[in-house]
Amino acid sequence: MEAPHLPVLLEEVLASFASVQPGWLVDCTLGYAGHSSALLDHHPDLKLVGIDRDPTALDFSRERLAPHAERLRLYRGDFASLLPDLQERPITGVLADFGVSSLQLDRAERGFGFESDRLDMRMDPDAPLSAYEVVNTYPQERLRYLLAEYGEIRSADRLARAIIDARHKAPFESARQLSAFAERFFGGRRGRTHPATQLFQAIRIEVNDELGQIEGLLDALETMRPPGAVVSLITFHSLEDRLVKRRFARWARSCVCPPEAMRCTCGNDHQLGTIPTRKPRTATPEEIRANPRSRSAKLRTFVFKEA
C-alpha cells in the first residue's frame, strides 16, 4: 500500500531503536504508519501499539499494517491519556512524531493549510474546539497570550488587536482568509517562510493542546519508567524541543541537589537512564531536498535504565 507522505528522519528513527528489546513499542502518533511499518519490518520480535486521534489515519494504517496484524493493537485517542493505562507489557520502546502529517496539511477540508477553505486545524475531527472558535471568539488577552507563547510572535499584542478589529467587521471563515490577513499584517512574504506560519502554529497548538500533550506524555513516562525502554521523540519547533530536551536532561542527572549546595546530599543515584547522543539527530541534506518539511525536525532519544 502506497504511503500518502514521507516519514521524517526514518533512517534516524530506525537507528535509535536498533537495540530495542522484544516487547511492545508504542507509536504515540501513528499517523500513516511510515515509521511503524519500517520498525515492524526491521524487528520481527517487536509488537506495536499505535495511537492516533485521527480516524482517517487509523483506517489507513490498519490496512497498511495488515501483514503485521497479529503483532498490532490500534487505539483512537490522545497519547497522554492512553499511554499510562495500556495493558500491553512490557513496553520496550516509545516513539512520537509531533509534527502535523502531510496529509492533514495537504487536505483542504482539514483546514490546516494556508489555502484551505475551512478554518479548522483539529487533529481529532470530533474535538469541540476548532481554529474558527479560537480566532473568532477568544478574548484579546487570551489571543495575545497564545500568539506570544505558542507562536513566539513579537508583535503579539498588536496582532491580537488587529484580529479583534477585523472579526468585528466579519468573522474569519477560512484559513485562506486568515493567511491573507497575516500577509497584509506582516507586510508580505520574506524568503521561503509564509508570513502566517507562526500565527497558524499558535492556533494549531491551542486547538490540539499540543504542548500539554507532550507534557502529559513525559509525565506518564516519568511515572512508568519502563525498564530498558528506548524513547525517541521528534519535534518540529523550539517550544516542543525545549520541553523534551529539558526533561531528558533532568532524567539523566544523577545528582539532584540545588546548584548552591556545597556538597551532594541527595545520594547521587537519581539517574533514570541515559541520553545516547549528545546532539539531536536531524535530517540530511538529501532528505531535506526530498521532503522540505523535514528541515526543522529534531529527534532526541532517551534510554531508561534496566530495573
Helix content: 40-55%
> What is the string of SSEs from the N terminus onward?
HEHEHEHEHHHHHHHEHEEHE
Poorly predicted runs: none
Question: What name does the CATH topology of the largest domain carry?
Answer: Rossmann fold
What's the architecture of the largest domain, going by CATH?
A: 3-Layer(aba) Sandwich
SS field, number of helical segments? 13
The percentage of residues in β strands lies in 5-15%
The CATH homologous superfamily of the largest domain corresponds to Vaccinia Virus protein VP39
Multimerization status: single chain
Describe the structure using short key phrases.
DNA polymerase, domain 1, 8-stranded mixed β-sheet, 13 helices, 2 domains, globular, 307 residues, alpha/beta
